């Protein structure tokens, strides 16, 4: 285990920035989001939940695939997607790291999404344990340990107040740690003990969270019963049909492919889509989900039933962003509880 | 600014051909443009005229879309208040685009880039003057980058 | 507020029992201290779920559009700002007044959970109670009272209509709040003072935060089109691309489209997940309408003509030299 004093942390940013693009929670206009670090930026490592999830780093909201231009009777096309620069994603919380794995299940299975794969391979993910879980956190319902390094993390870190403890987890992480060896000091035994203490504290805190009682096993009805449940009508009536929940969600990954028509030239791009929108999966005959009820159902059935059927795990990581962001407070927890017969 | 740098700026300026989109009402301003043409008055070829049935047909979206797709300046021209072919259309134009004029300036678009004016069918001269005036001002401001879609190519 | 909560439940129960209405719209408490969400109830026994507290911020009037399609007579609880939205929907012919029974609720202001969190008062918080401007924080350890409006939403601090402007029954005594009309457009004036470059910088920074979720549009009582141009794939503007020009296009269009119809309820700003101060756009248009065409407050008086659907022969304009409207 290594450590670095917080007073020296800006040196670390500078160093990483020399060979990598560094994405880190940065505070701007009272909102914290993962964005590319530049000298002078206000880094905020205390914030638990960035305003939007960091998924836009590995799965950008808009990504151009190809550009085309008319040249006489010919059309010139150029592939432009993917990521060329190596990057470091620092301070990702364990729930968000797990969300990356969930996206991997979709994009990295055959047929592999090449641009996504390229982006994933270029990145080093450094997680940070959640010293102070919040009331809207319910990652424990999905078996995520906010105190530990979860699968998919290259380096795990712990915030000890005046210093950050650092432990490489993968080969990639070890190589990266090696390249920073003059900045990272060896952690002492005391540090390691303090870390164990912190982990125990976190465990205790997680147990006492208001949402720690969520039990996914309570949703035990068949897919057909869930699909036809009356709760969709009850909740969708209040749903505004905006895309806040889907766009701040770390696991939502539906997308649309559109063309920008600029007359003589244009672009084909991929952009996030939201099942809440009326033009989601729009086909020649219209949207197969005609009312908000079907769209609302799609979002939750996808996360709690369809995805688990396909990949063996729930497509929610319990980050709680939707709880905070929904303008009318119709969120994941209410749906889980209602499906489980609790509300 | 060094002499060299100044020269490149000037050089670019000389190359800059502003694109002006003018929405002209069918009954007055379009006829005014016609008159300007038949009277052999010179007004710049960079003005692309779009004929609309009435100036109040113009939607704020038209203006924004024009800026988005390469316009350096946008003009809306209609009949003088009181002369509308449909009696009252341009009274609405007046209110709507008074607000839009101020609003675009509020979000940071130079006032000179968006112009509304009244040009009657008899005012070929005014048509040429207004267009020349807008063009000159836009030319001085340089190419418009604001609101423009970065993916759009001229 | 607790006493009024009792009234809310009693009135809803009575209305449903007597079949005065088919359905009642109100608010229900959720998981957390700030978690309150809209509910529509049809059975009298469900009325016990209804609440009235410092987090009933959602305007229920827009849901009426859907309810009218279902041809139901609906009872609805409306605050001052909500009633403005209601009037605007009436004016836009989106709802039928005869099909609605309004229970008016004078409102002293709603508490902004973000402000509570910022002060660090959310740790272990179980409930927030409000009585006029006295806010009680209930935690496991006990109660803490704070007097003042520092936790109110910004929009509530600027509220000019704490009492419903339209109602069938008022469930509480009217509230008197003094608000300076002079301060109303201070935000706009500050931006107007910037240079043109600064202004563009300011707004393009704000717009670039947009995540295109449409929450501002969907919550808005003035945005009630059957099909929004941004949902219409045939209109060529429905692009979900997160590029600057599309975001600018969206926000200018949104603000301009509600010109003269925006009731200044501030909901767009409240719900924006990216924190864009959308009300500053709406305020600019309101300020200009007031200056150019005389004072107009959307949603206050249904009989008054909206400024953009009417005109005067001698109107000022802001674009010709003789128009004298100026900026």
TrEMBL record, chain A:
InterPro entries: 4Fe4S_Fe-S-bd, 4Fe4S_Fe_S_CS, Helical_ferredxn
UniProt xrefs under SUPFAM superfamilies: alpha-helical ferredoxin (SSF46548)
Domain of life: Bacteria
Domain 4Fe-4S ferredoxin-type: 229-260, 306-338
Keyword terms of this UniProt record: Iron, Iron-sulfur, Metal-binding
GO molecular function: iron-sulfur cluster binding; metal ion binding
PANTHER family documented for this protein: ANAEROBIC SULFITE REDUCTASE SUBUNIT A
Protein name (Swiss-Prot/TrEMBL): 4Fe-4S dicluster protein
Source organism of this protein record: Marinisporobacter balticus
From TrEMBL, chain B:
Coiled-coil stretches noted in the UniProt entry, renumbered to this chain: none
Entry keywords, A to Z: Iron, Iron-sulfur, Metal-binding, Oxidoreductase
F420-non-reducing hydrogenase iron-sulfur subunit D domain boundaries: 20-142
GO MF annotation terms: iron-sulfur cluster binding; metal ion binding; oxidoreductase activity
Top-level division of the source organism's lineage: Bacteria
Protein name: Coenzyme F420-reducing hydrogenase delta subunit
Gene source species: Marinisporobacter balticus
TrEMBL record, chain C:
Keywords linked to the UniProt accession: Iron, Iron-sulfur, Metal-binding
One MF annotation (Gene Ontology) recorded for this entry: metal ion binding
Superkingdom per UniProt: Bacteria
Record has Metal-binding as a keyword: yes
Keyword Ribosomal protein included in the entry's annotation: no
The protein, known as: 4Fe-4S dicluster protein
Segments traversing the membrane: none
Start and end residues of each 4Fe-4S ferredoxin-type domain: 200-231, 253-284
InterPro entries in alphabetical order: 4Fe4S_Fe-S-bd, 4Fe4S_Fe_S_CS, Helical_ferredxn
């Amino acid at each position: 285990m290594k450590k670095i004093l917080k007073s020296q942390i800006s040196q670390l940013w500078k160093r990483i920035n020399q060979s990598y693009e560094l994405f880190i929670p940065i505070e701007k206009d009272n909102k914290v989001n993962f964005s590319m670090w530049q000298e002078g930026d206000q880094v905020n490592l205390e914030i638990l939940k960035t305003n939007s999830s960091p998924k836009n780093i590995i799965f950008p909201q808009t990504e151009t695939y190809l550009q085309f231009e008319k040249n006489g009777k010919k059309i010139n096309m150029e592939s432009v997607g993917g990521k060329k620069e190596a990057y470091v994603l620092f301070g990702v919380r364990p729930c968000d790291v797990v969300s990356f794995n969930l996206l991997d299940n979709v994009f990295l299975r055959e047929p592999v999404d090449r641009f996504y794969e390229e982006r994933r391979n270029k990145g080093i993910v450094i997680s940070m344990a959640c010293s102070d879980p919040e009331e809207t956190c319910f990652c424990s319902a999905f078996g995520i340990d906010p105190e530990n390094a979860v699968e998919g993390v290259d380096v795990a870190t712990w915030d000890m107040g005046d210093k950050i403890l650092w432990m490489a987890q993968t080969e990639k992480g070890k190589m990266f740690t090696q390249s920073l060896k003059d900045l990272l000091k060896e952690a002492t035994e005391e540090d390691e003990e303090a870390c164990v203490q912190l982990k125990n504290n976190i465990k205790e805190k997680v147990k006492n969270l208001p949402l720690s009682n969520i039990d996914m096993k309570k949703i035990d009805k068949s897919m057909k019963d869930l699909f036809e449940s009356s709760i969709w009508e009850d909740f969708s009536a209040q749903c505004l049909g905006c895309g806040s929940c889907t766009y701040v969600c770390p696991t939502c990954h539906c997308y649309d492919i559109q063309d920008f028509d600029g007359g003589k030239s244009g672009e084909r791009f991929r952009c996030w889509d939201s099942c809440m929108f009326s033009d989601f999966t729009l086909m020649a005959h219209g949207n197969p989900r005609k009312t908000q009820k079907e769209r609302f159902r799609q979002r939750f059935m996808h996360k709690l039933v369809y995805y688990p059927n396909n990949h063996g795990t729930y497509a929610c990581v319990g980050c709680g962003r939707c709880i905070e962001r929904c303008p009318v407070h119709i969120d994941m927890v209410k749906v889980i509880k209602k499906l489980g017969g609790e509300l | 600014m060094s002499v060299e740098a100044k020269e490149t700026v000037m050089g670019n300026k000389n190359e800059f051909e502003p694109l002006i989109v003018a929405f002209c009402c069918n009954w007055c301003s379009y006829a005014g443009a016609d008159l300007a043409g038949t009277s052999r008055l010179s007004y710049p070829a960079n003005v692309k005229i779009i004929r609309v049935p009435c100036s109040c047909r113009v939607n704020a979206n038209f203006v924004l879309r024009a800026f988005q797709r390469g316009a350096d300046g946008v003009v809306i021209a209609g009949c003088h208040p009181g002369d509308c072919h449909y009696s009252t259309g341009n009274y609405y134009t007046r209110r709507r685009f008074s607000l839009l004029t101020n609003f675009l300036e509020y979000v940071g678009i130079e006032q000179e880039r968006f112009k509304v004016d009244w040009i009657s069918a008899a005012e070929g001269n005014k048509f040429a003057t207004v267009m020349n005036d807008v063009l000159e001002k836009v030319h001085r401001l340089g190419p418009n980058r604001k609101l423009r879609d970065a993916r759009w190519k001229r | 507020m607790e006493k009024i909560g009792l009234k809310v439940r009693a009135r809803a129960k009575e209305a449903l029992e007597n079949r005065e209405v088919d359905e009642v719209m109100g608010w229900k408490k959720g998981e957390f201290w700030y978690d309150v969400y809209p509910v529509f109830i049809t059975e009298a026994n469900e009325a016990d779920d209804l609440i009235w507290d410092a987090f009933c911020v959602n305007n229920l009037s827009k849901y009426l559009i859907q309810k009218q399609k279902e041809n139901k007579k609906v009872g609805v609880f409306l605050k001052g700002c909500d009633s403005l939205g209601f009037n605007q929907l009436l004016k836009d012919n989106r709802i039928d007044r005869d099909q609605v029974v309004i229970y008016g609720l004078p409102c002293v202001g709603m508490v902004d959970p973000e402000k509570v969190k910022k002060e660090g008062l959310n740790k272990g918080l179980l409930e927030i109670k409000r009585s006029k401007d006295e806010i009680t924080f209930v935690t496991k350890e006990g109660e803490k009272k704070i007097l003042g409006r520092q936790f109110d939403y910004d929009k509530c601090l600027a509220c000019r209509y704490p009492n419903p402007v339209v109602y069938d029954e008022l469930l509480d005594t009217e509230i008197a709040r003094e608000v300076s009309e002079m301060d109303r457009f201070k935000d706009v004036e500050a931006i107007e003072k910037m240079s043109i470059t600064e202004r563009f910088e300011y707004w393009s920074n704000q717009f670039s935060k947009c995540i295109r979720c449409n929450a501002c549009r969907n919550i808005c009582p003035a945005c009630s089109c059957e099909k929004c141009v941004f949902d219409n794939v045939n209109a060529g503007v429905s692009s979900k691309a997160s590029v600057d020009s599309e975001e600018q296009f969206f926000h200018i269009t949104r603000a301009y489209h509600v010109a003269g119809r925006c009731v200044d309820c501030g909901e767009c700003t409240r719900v924006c997940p990216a924190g864009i101060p959308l009300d500053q756009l709406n305020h600019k248009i309101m300020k200009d309408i007031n200056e150019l065409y005389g004072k107009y407050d959307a949603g206050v008086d249904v009989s008054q003509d909206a400024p953009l659907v009417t005109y005067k022969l001698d109107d000022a304009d802001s674009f010709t030299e003789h128009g004298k409207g100026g900026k």
